[in-house]
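Bit of a strange request maybe. I'm writing a small parser for structure token strings and I need a real example to test against, not something I typed by hand. Could someone generate the tokens for this chain?
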Amino acid sequence: MSASGITVSVRLGARLGPGHRAVRLAAGATVAELLATLAPDLGLDARQLDGIAVAIAGEVVGHGHGLADGEAVVLVLPVAGG
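Reply from user aminoacidic:
Good idea to test on real output. This should exercise your parser:
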């Protein structure tokens, strides 16, 4: 990809929908921008993804984390229960 953008691979949590998505973003994009881009495709408002955890290379990262071209991102929904 050119210096003007990146592509990340996103694995969705089971309740978000099936499978994986390849998402193109502007260079320097953050996790928050990724979630805002994905939300409409998932039929959600971006605010509905505020509580979602995001992991990259097995580490949970914050929504301000900058993304790199080719990164694999996993969306992890919070689990409720008792």
